[in-house]
Amino acid sequence: MSLVAAEGIDVRHGRLRVLHGVSLRIEPGEIVTVVGPNGSGKSTLLRALIGAVPLSAGRVRRAPGLRIGYVPQRLHIDPTLPLTARRFLDLPARVPEAEAQAALDRAGAAGLGGRQMQSLSGGQFQRVLLARATLGRPDLLMLDEPTQGLDQPGASAFYRRIEGIRDRLGCAVLMVSHDLHVVMSASDRVICLNGHVCCEGTPAVVSAAPAYRELFGTGTAGAP
Ligand code: ADP
Ligand code: MG
């Protein structure tokens, strides 16, 4: 059974139709990347899949008892609030020390527990967010532009890490990315979104698809 299945979903923000007729499935253990221009509804799609935005048509089915680890695109932390990475893992609920350390370890953030969140570099911050998302052993990790602000080598390394976590935890991964070139090599499947699903398939199939080329040009590094 699929972990999540969207069937012909529409989402509106006021008069604006953000998603229309979107259908997709996420299967256990696969890494799926959603790509698309700014404003194409990628973040809205993730939020619809977790049930955080109302649908105006269609439906989303989630496997019974499905555990989702979600990292939103933007996470604001009050800069005046002292908060170590370790303490951040305790929000909203305290986690046992061994679990916290294991999560930091597998996210490549082993030495960062005592650091203030505000003092972390972009890459370190993302690794701590990733660590928190893996607490509670999710069946599905959802990451909304986790490599935003990282350079290409940094983004590549981050995707390798996500693959490693998928292999270790056996979870599926659904992420949104603009790093089309790096994403291609790190995904089992790519979904190209522009309000609707323009094309989807293996990275090779999508990068050759006319709809994809129309949106992104022929070069795969042409992130908008
Ligand atoms: P993406 O993640 O692909 O950049 P979003 O899903 O964030 O796209 O947004 C898709 C469209 O929906 C955009 O035009 C955006 O302005 C609009 N939108 C998103 N969230 C809201 C909201 N809460 N209220 C009104 N409009 C929104
Ligand atoms: Mg977005």
Notes on the structure:
By secondary structure, this protein is α/β, with parallel strands linked by helices. It is 33% helix and 25% strand. The strands form two sheets. A six-stranded mixed sheet has the order 5-6-7-3-8-9, with helices on both faces. It has a three-stranded antiparallel sheet with strand order 2-1-4, with helices on one face. Helix 3 (97-106) crosses helix 4 (122-134). The chain is globular and about 50 Å long. Bound molecules: adenosine-5'-diphosphate (ADP) and magnesium ion (MG). Residues 13, 16, 18, 36, 38-44 line the site of adenosine-5'-diphosphate (ADP).
Radius of gyration: 17 Å
Low-confidence stretches: 220-224
What structural category arises from helix and sheet content? alpha/beta
Q: What is the general shape?
A: globular
The helix/strand series, from N terminus to C terminus, equals: EEEHEEHHHEHEHEEHH
Terminal Cα span:
35 Å
Query: Could you tell me the number of beta strands?
Result: 9
- Ligands (ions, cofactors included): adenosine-5'-diphosphate, magnesium ion
| Helical segment count | 8
Mean pLDDT: 92
Largest sheet: 6 strands, mixed
- Sheet-strand content, in percent, reads 25-35%
| Helix residue percentage | 25-40%
Main sheet: strand order? 5-6-7-3-8-9
What is the element layout, followed by pairings?
Layout lengths: L3 E10 L2 E11 L4 E5 L6 H8 L7 E6 L5 E4 L13 H5 L7 H10 L15 H13 L5 E5 L7 H18 L2 E5 L3 H7 L2 E5 L3 E5 L1 H6 L1 H7 L8
Parallel strand pairs: 3-7, 3-8, 5-6, 6-7
Antiparallel strand pairs: 1-2, 1-4, 8-9
Helix pairs in contact: 3-4
